[in-house]
Amino acid sequence: MKAKYDFSKGKRGAVLPTPGKKVRITIRLDRDIVDWFRSKVEEQGGGNYQSMLNDALRTYMERQEQPIEEVVRRVVREELQAAQE
Q1: pLDDT digits (tens, 9 = 90+) for 23-32
Q2: How far is residue 42's CA from residue 35's CA, in Å, rounded to a whole number?
Q3: 43 falls in which pLDDT band (50, 70, 90)?
Q4: Mean per-residue pLDDT for 57-81?
Q5: Which domain range does residue 72 map to?
Q6: Arithmetic mean of pLDDT over the chain
Q7: pLDDT given for residue 79 in this prediction
Q8: Can you tell me the distance from the alpha carbon of 55 to that of 52, in angstroms, rounded to the nearest whole number?
C-alpha cells in the first residue's frame, strides 16, 4: 500500500454510469399504492413492483398522447365487450 493516495480527481457515487434509459430518483408515494403494486407482483408469482409502477405510468402517458378518436374507439370497444359478458 502507498503511504498516501491522491483523490483530487475522484468522483462520488457509482464508478460506472448505469446503462439504459432509466434514472434513479427518490419519490414519496402513499403506502397503500406501494402495497397494492407489491401485492400484484406477489399474485403474479414474482417480479419487481417498481417495474410494474413504471409500466402503469407509461400506459397512462401513452393514453394521454392518443388522438381522441382512438380513445373513443377503445372506450366503445370496452363498453361493448362489457355488455356482452
Answers
A1: 888 999 999 9
A2: 10
A3: very high
A4: 88
A5: 31-79
A6: 88
A7: 93
A8: 5
- Amino acid at site 37: F
**CA distances in angstroms from 34 to 3, 8, 24, 47, 48, listed in the order given:** 49, 41, 17, 14, 11
Q: Is 43 within 8 Å of 55 (Cβ atoms)? A: no
Rg (CA), the chain: 22
Question: 20 in a domain, yes or no?
Answer: no
The answer to whether 41 and 49 have CB atoms below 8 angstroms apart is: yes
> Domain tally for the chain?
1
In a domain, 70, yes or no: yes
- Is residue 24 assigned to a domain? no
Residue 21 corresponds to which cell in the numbers above? 434509459
Please report whether residue 69 resides in a domain.
yes
